[in-house]
């Protein structure tokens, strides 16, 4: 099951990333609204991919540790 706290953190990070990327594209690169939206979507998608990969690795390691301790030969 998805932890509501983790989902909230993911939403805040994603929203903050999008807003920051959009503002940077508009202010620093002088992009039009549609170009800035495309840029923000691309950056946010890449961020989600990296964070998702990291979360998958951490979750896999955590699962392996707990699975190993639950299936020990001493139980």
Helix and strand pattern: HH
Structural class: mainly alpha
Q: What is the first-to-last residue Cα distance?
A: 26 Å
In total, the number of strands is 0
Label the overall shape.
Answer: elongated
Largest sheet, strands/sense/barrel: none
Provide the residue-averaged pLDDT.
83
- Beta-strand portion reads under 5%
Helix content: over 70%
DSSP summary: helix tally:
2
Poorly predicted regions: none
C-alpha Rg (nearest Å): 19 Å
Overview of this protein structure:
With 75 residues, the protein is an all-alpha fold. 83% of the residues lie in helices and 0% in strands. It has two helices and no strands.
Please outline what is shown here:
The chain has 75 residues and is an all-alpha fold. It is built from 2 helices and no strands.
Features:
75 residues, mainly alpha, 83% helix, 0% strand, elongated
Question: What's the helix and strand layout?
Answer:
Elements: H1 4-27, H2 33-70
């Amino acid at each position: 099951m998805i932890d509501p706290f983790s989902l909230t953190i993911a939403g805040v990070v994603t929203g903050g990333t999008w807003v920051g990327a959009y503002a940077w594209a508009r202010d620093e690169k002088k992009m039009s609204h549609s170009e800035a939206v495309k840029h923000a979507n691309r950056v946010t998608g890449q961020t989600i991919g990296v964070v998702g990969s990291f979360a998958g690795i951490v979750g896999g390691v955590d699962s392996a540790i707990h699975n190993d301790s639950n299936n020990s030969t001493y139980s």
